Amino acid sequence: MLDFMYKDHYGLDDLERIVEILRAPGGCPWDREQTHASIRQNMLEEAYEVCEAIDQTDRDHLKEELGDVLLQVALHAQMEKERGSFTLADVADGISQKLIFRHPHVFGDVNAQDVDQALNTWDAMKRVEKSQVTYTDTLRAVAMSLPALWRAEKVQKKAKKAGFDWPDVKGALDKLSEELEELRAAVDGDGDVTEELGDLLFACVNVARFVHADPEQALTQATDKFISRFALVEQKTQAEGQDMKEMDLAQLDALWDRAKQDLKDGQTGRL
Question: Is residue 59 part of a domain?
Fold first, then answer.
């Protein structure tokens, strides 16, 4: 007989119990086989789906996706509970302790009158907590598992706190031009193409930071724009009874320019 009480409404303790049952002998064969590594990708996917719900301003979807992330947290905590390492309650305790420690301007006697002061206090307490002695320590602490553009942006922001930054966007733009020329030279055989491409992308992130643009979002929007234009080009070729593969670059480029103009004019439905 399953030791579980069915309810009309479940709480966090119930979630912990459900996951425990799923992982126990006689539970779900799939859940029992999972490890931290095997569901690592699941955590990333669920986090991105939360972001999608936020972008869609869909509260019901957001609630559902937050639940999926919470399930991942519960699963990872249950795996460690089985090893006698820590529990979901320990996870909650850890984040509670961290929040209290990093908010001495709320839970202590430190003064923070605005957002900048609050963030500076948070950063200072985090450095104490993580035993980060040098500015380099703070750069190295940025997770390598982050998307590359996001990681570059965070590293640059931390370098700025050490005073290592351009005074304005002009310096960043000049550096971008310099890196582009070095990439051109590498493509022509003078240098490492991959290295120079990385330098160019890093410089692009620097420009994005100065103009207060999210580089991940900017690239996502550019990709979406490309797909929209590509779809129009394909529609136009099909309307003319042709296949894109059979057209030369000049023809495709002309159709691409027409697609750009149609999108600009809001005429996406007209061929």
Answer: yes
